[in-house]
C-alpha cells in the first residue's frame, strides 16, 4: 500500500500543474456535437435577454446569462466597454458606482474622476481607470432596489470572451448580441498597440471565436450574432471588417448621436434610413419613441416601424420590463399584454427584455414553434409596407 | 267581416299578456354555460386593477375579460339598502371629503376591537351615498376614472351578472355583519343576513352546488363570520365559503383564532355548512424576506381538500410589490404556481383579464 506513495504525490502534483496549465482559459466548447444542438428559432420574433435575466440576478453576470439561457432566450445581450489595460468587458454604465461595490474598496478611494461623457460632466469610478485584475476584485449588485437583492456581492464582472463562451457552451444554439458601447469615450481613454481601436479589438474577439457570415447564412445560424451600437460611424467602420449583421440603436428624441451629433429626427428620416440600410440589417429604437406616451397612456404609433420594414430593416425595440412601474396603463399592469401589443399589433422583429422567462412563456403559449406562420405573417405585412413606400414615392415623385 | 274587430284585440291582449307575464330580469335563453373544468376566475371587486372597485364599469370589464364570477362586498346604508362596498368607511375610495354637506358626519366606532374614525357607510342614507363618486384605491393604478362612477346596490350588481351574454356567477360577501347589525335596523325585525338572502331569492338564486338551478345562476356566498353562514344555512342550500384571514386575526362573531378554525375538528364541523374556504395566500404560504418557502407551508390546502372543501385564496394582484421574488416579478408565474403546484380551486384576482389569459393560453397543455 505504501509502496510508491512518496513517488506518487509529486507525480500527482506535477500532473495537476500540467493539466491546469494546459486547460484553455475559457470554458471548453459544448460537449454536445454542434450538429445535434437545437438550432436558433427563426420563425417568430427574437427573445433578446437584455443584460441577461437581470430581473432576477445582477445584470451582465455569468449567472444572469446562464439563467437567461435556461429560460429560453434566443440571444444573450451585453454592453462592451474596456478596462484600462484594453481588455473588453461586459458592463453597461460608464461608471462602476451604481452596480458594483467599488465604494467599499478603500484601495480604490482615490480613483474617482470627472469626465465629459456625451457632453455631460460625469463623476464616478470609471472602468477605463481600472485594470481587469482590479475590476475582478469588485462584486456586482442588483441595479434596482425593488428586485431581488439576495445575490448582491456574489458575482464579478466578466470579460467579452467569458460572455462568448457562455453562449458557445449552451446546450442549444444561443446567439450573442454585443454592443460597441460608448466608443467615443473608450477610444479617448484606452489605447491599443499597433494603432488598433476599440472597434478593431471588438471584431477581433468575435473572429477569434469563429463568428462570421451574413444574416441567415449557414455560418451565422451556427453562431448567431448581432452587433449593435448607438454610434453610426462605428458600424460603418466595422462593415469593412465583417459581414456579420449590425443593428443601429436609436436613443430618445432629445439625444444626438455621440459620434456624428445627429438628431433623432435626422437619423430616423427616410433619407437616413436609405443610407444606413446599406450597413445594418435593423434598428433598435427606444420603445417610447416608436409609440409615444402621454400621462402613462399610449398615443397613436409613429410610422417608424413601417418605414423600417419597407426598407427590409428589422426593428428590435428596448426595453421590456415586468414591473408595473414600467408598464403603461393600457397594458393593465400586465407585462404579457405589453408583449402581445408589440408583437401582434406593432409587429416588431425582436424584443430586448429584462425578463426572458416571461417573454418565453408568452411566445410559447401563444405562438409555439410548431406553428410556423409567425414570420410569414410579418413577411406579408412587410410587403404591404414596401408597396406603400412605392406608392407614396410615385405620388410624391 | 268583423274579423278585424276580433283579431286586433286578440293580438293586443296577447302582446300585453306576454309583456306582463315576462319576468323582470329573465336571462337570455341560451347562454354559454359556466366553465367548471378549471379553477374559477373570481373577479375580486371587478377588474379593479383598471377601474375603480365595485363599480358597474369594473364589473362589466371583468365580464368582458372572461371572469367566471364577479365578486362583491355587501354592506348596508343607514336606511337598510344593501350596497356594494368594501371598507366600512368612505374615506379611501370615495370623494366624501369633498362634500361639504357631509363634513359633520365623521364618527369614531369600534370595529372588531379597533377604534376607527371616518365617514361610515352606515351613517348615510342610500340617496346620500349616491351623491358620492368612487375613486381608484391604489395610487399606482390608473386614476383616469376617478370621480366618474357611483356606488351601486346589491341588486344592480346582480343585474350585471344576469344581463351578461354568457353565464356569469356572483360571489357576494356578507361583510362585517356584526357591525352592520349593530348599526342598522330593519323595520320588519329582519337582520342583515335575512335581507341578504331576500335579495338573492328575489332574483331566483337557488340550488346546491352544481345543481341544475345553480349552474343557471351560479353563486357562492362568502363571509368571515361563521355564525352568519350557519344562520343562512337554514334559509338556503346555496354554496357557502368561509373566509379565513391571516393568523393573528380572530373571527368577528365567535372570537376564534386562526388555529382553531383551521383545525381538523373545526373542518369536520364547518364542512356541513360550507363547500369551501377562502383563505388569504399568506395563511397558506407565509413569506420571509419576500420569498415563499414551501417548508413554511401551513398545510391548509391539503387539509381542506381532505375534508372535501374547495380552496379559493385571495388576493392575486399583478403589481410586483405584491409578488414574492420566487415569481420573478411575473404575475403569470404566480398563477402557474398556485394553480398547478398548490392546486387551488379558484382565485380571487384584481386582474381577471390576466388570469383569463393564463388559463386560456395554457389550457391546451391540459393543465
UniProtKB/TrEMBL annotation, chain A:
Listed EC numbers: 3.1.4.46
Domain GP-PDE: 45-363
Protein's UniProt keywords contain Hydrolase: yes
Claim: Acetylation is one of the keywords in the record: no
Signal peptide: 1-22
Reaction(s) the record says it catalyses: a sn-glycero-3-phosphodiester + H2O = an alcohol + sn-glycerol 3-phosphate + H(+)
Alphabetic keyword roster: Glycerol metabolism, Hydrolase, Signal
InterPro entries the UniProt entry points to: GP_PDE_dom, PLC-like_Pdiesterase_TIM-brl
Any single Pfam family the record assigns to this protein: GDPD
Alphabetized CDD domains for the sequence: GDPD_ScGlpQ1_like (cd08602)
Family: Belongs to the glycerophosphoryl diester phosphodiesterase family.
Name of the molecule in the record: glycerophosphodiester phosphodiesterase
From TrEMBL, chain B:
PANTHER family: GLYCEROPHOSPHODIESTER PHOSPHODIESTERASE GDPD5-RELATED (PTHR43620:SF7), GLYCEROPHOSPHORYL DIESTER PHOSPHODIESTERASE (PTHR43620)
Gene3D superfamilies the record matches: Phosphatidylinositol (PI) phosphodiesterase (3.20.20.190)
Family annotation (InterPro entries): GP_PDE_dom (IPR030395), PLC-like_Pdiesterase_TIM-brl (IPR017946)
EC number annotated for this UniProt entry: 3.1.4.46
SUPFAM superfamilies with a match to the protein in the record: PLC-like phosphodiesterases
Transmembrane annotation, as ranges: 6-25
Keywords of this entry: Glycerol metabolism, Hydrolase, Membrane, Signal, Transmembrane, Transmembrane helix
Name of the protein: glycerophosphodiester phosphodiesterase
Enzyme class: hydrolase
Superkingdom as given in the UniProt entry: Eukaryota
Organism: Hibiscus sabdariffa
Matches recorded under CDD domains: GDPD_ScGlpQ1_like
Residue stretches making up the GP-PDE domain: 39-359
Reactions listed under catalytic activity: a sn-glycero-3-phosphodiester + H2O = an alcohol + sn-glycerol 3-phosphate + H(+)
Amino acid at each position: 500500500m505504501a509502496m510508491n506513495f512518496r513517488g506518487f504525490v509529486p507525480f500527482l502534483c506535477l500532473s495537476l500543474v500540467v493539466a491546469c496549465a494546459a486547460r484553455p482559459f475559457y470554458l471548453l466548447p459544448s460537449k454536445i456535437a454542434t450538429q445535434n444542438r437545437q438550432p436558433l428559432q427563426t420563425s417568430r420574433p427574437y427573445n433578446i435577454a437584455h443584460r441577461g435575466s437581470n430581473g432576477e440576478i445582477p445584470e451582465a453576470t455569468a449567472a444572469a446569462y446562464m439563467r437567461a439561457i435556461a429560460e429560453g432566450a434566443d440571444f444573450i445581450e451585453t454592453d462592451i466597454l474596456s478596462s484600462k489595460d484594453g481588455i473588453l468587458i461586459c458592463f453597461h454604465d460608464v461608471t462602476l458606482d451604481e452596480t458594483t461595490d467599488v465604494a467599499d474598496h478603500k484601495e480604490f478611494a482615490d480613483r474617482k474622476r470627472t469626465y465629459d461623457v456625451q457632453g455631460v460632466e460625469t463623476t464616478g469610478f470609471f472602468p477605463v481607470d481600472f485594470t481587469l485584475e482590479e475590476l475582478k476584485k469588485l462584486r456586482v449588485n442588483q441595479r434596482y432596489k425593488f428586485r431581488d437583492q439576495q445575490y448582491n456581492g456574489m458575482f464579478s464582472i466578466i470579460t467579452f470572451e467569458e460572455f462568448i463562451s457562455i453562449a458557445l457552451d449552451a446546450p442549444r444554439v444561443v446567439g450573442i448580441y454585443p454592443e460597441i458601447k460608448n466608443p467615443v469615450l473608450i477610444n479617448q481613454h484606452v489605447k491599443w498597440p499597433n494603432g488598433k481601436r476599440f472597434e478593431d479589438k471588438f471584431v477581433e474577439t468575435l473572429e477569434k471565436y469563429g463568428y462570421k457570415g451574413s444574416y441567415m447564412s449557414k455560418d451565422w445560424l451556427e453562431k448567431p450574432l448581432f452587433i449593435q451600437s448607438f454610434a453610426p460611424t462605428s458600424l460603418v467602420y466595422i462593415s469593412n471588417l465583417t459581414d456579420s449583421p449590425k443593428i443601429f440603436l436609436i436613443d430618445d428624441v432629445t439625444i444626438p448621436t455621440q459620434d456624428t451629433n445627429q438628431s433623432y429626427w435626422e437619423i430616423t428620416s427616410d433619407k437616413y434610413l436609405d443610407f444606413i440600410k446599406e450597413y445594418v440589417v435593423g434598428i433598435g429604437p427606444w420603445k417610447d419613441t416608436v409609440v409615444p406616451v402621454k400621462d402613462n397612456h399610449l398615443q397613436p404609433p409613429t410610422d417608424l416601424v413601417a418605414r423600417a420594414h419597407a426598407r427590409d430593416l428589422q426593428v428590435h425595440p428596448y426595453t421590456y420590463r415586468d414591473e408595473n412601474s414600467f408598464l403603461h396603463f393600457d397594458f393593465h399592469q400586465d407585462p404579457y399584454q405589453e408583449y402581445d401589443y408589440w408583437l401582434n399589433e406593432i409587429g416588431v422583429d425582436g424584443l430586448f427584455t429584462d425578463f426572458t422567462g416571461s417573454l418565453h412563456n408568452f411566445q410559447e403559449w401563444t405562438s409555439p414553434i410548431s406553428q410556423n406562420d409567425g414570420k410569414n405573417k410579418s413577411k406579408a405585412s412587410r410587403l404591404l409596407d414596401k408597396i406603400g413606400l412605392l406608392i407614396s414615392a410615385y405620388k410624391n415623385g | 267581416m268583423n274579423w278585424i274587430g276580433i283579431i286586433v284585440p286578440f293580438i293586443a291582449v296577447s302582446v300585453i299578456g306576454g309583456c306582463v307575464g315576462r319576468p323582470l330580469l329573465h336571462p337570455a335563453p341560451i347562454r354559454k354555460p359556466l366553465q367548471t373544468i378549471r379553477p374559477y376566475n373570481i373577479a375580486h371587486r371587478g377588474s379593479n386593477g383598471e377601474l375603480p372597485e365595485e363599480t358597474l364599469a369594473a364589473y362589466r370589464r371583468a365580464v368582458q375579460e372572461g371572469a367566471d364570477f364577479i365578486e362583491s362586498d355587501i354592506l348596508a346604508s343607514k336606511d337598510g339598502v344593501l350596497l356594494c362596498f368594501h371598507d366600512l368607511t368612505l374615506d379611501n375610495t370615495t370623494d366624501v371629503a369633498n362634500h361639504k354637506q357631509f363634513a359633520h358626519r365623521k364618527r369614531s366606532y369600534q370595529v372588531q376591537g379597533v377604534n376607527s374614525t371616518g365617514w361610515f357607510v352606515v351613517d348615510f342614507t342610500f340617496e346620500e351615498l349616491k351623491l358620492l363618486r368612487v375613486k381608484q384605491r391604489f395610487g399606482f393604478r390608473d386614476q383616469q376614472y376617478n370621480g366618474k362612477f357611483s356606488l351601486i346596490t346589491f341588486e344592480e350588481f346582480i343585474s350585471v351578472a344576469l344581463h351578461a351574454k354568457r353565464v356569469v356567477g356572483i360571489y357576494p360577501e356578507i361583510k362585517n355583519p356584526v357591525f352592520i347589525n349593530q348599526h342598522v335596523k330593519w323595520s320588519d325585525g329582519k337582520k342583515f343576513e335575512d335581507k341578504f338572502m331576500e335579495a338573492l331569492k328575489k332574483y331566483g338564486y337557488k340550488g346546491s352546488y352544481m345543481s341544475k338551478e345553480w349552474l343557471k345562476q351560479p353563486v357562492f356566498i362568502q363571509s368571515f363570520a361563521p355564525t352568519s353562514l350557519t344562520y343562512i344555512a337554514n334559509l338556503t342550500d346555496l354554496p357557502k365559503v368561509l373566509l379565513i384571514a391571516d393568523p393573528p386575526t380572530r373571527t368577528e362573531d365567535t372570537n376564534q383564532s386562526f388555529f382553531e378554525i383551521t383545525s381538523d375538528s373545526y373542518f369536520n364541523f364547518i364542512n356541513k355548512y360550507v363547500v369551501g374556504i377562502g383563505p388569504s395566500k399568506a395563511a397558506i404560504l407565509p413569506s420571509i424576506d419576500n420569498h415563499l418557502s414551501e417548508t413554511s407551508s401551513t398545510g391548509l390546502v391539503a387539509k381542506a381538500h381532505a375534508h372535501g372543501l374547495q380552496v379559493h385564496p385571495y388576493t392575486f394582484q399583478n403589481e410586483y410589490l405584491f409578488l414574492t421574488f420566487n415569481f420573478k416579478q411575473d404575475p403569470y408565474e404566480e398563477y402557474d404556481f398556485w394553480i398547478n403546484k398548490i392546486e387551488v380551486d379558484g382565485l380571487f384576482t384584481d386582474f381577471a383579464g390576466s388570469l383569463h389569459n393564463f388559463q386560456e393560453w395554457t389550457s391546451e397543455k391540459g393543465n
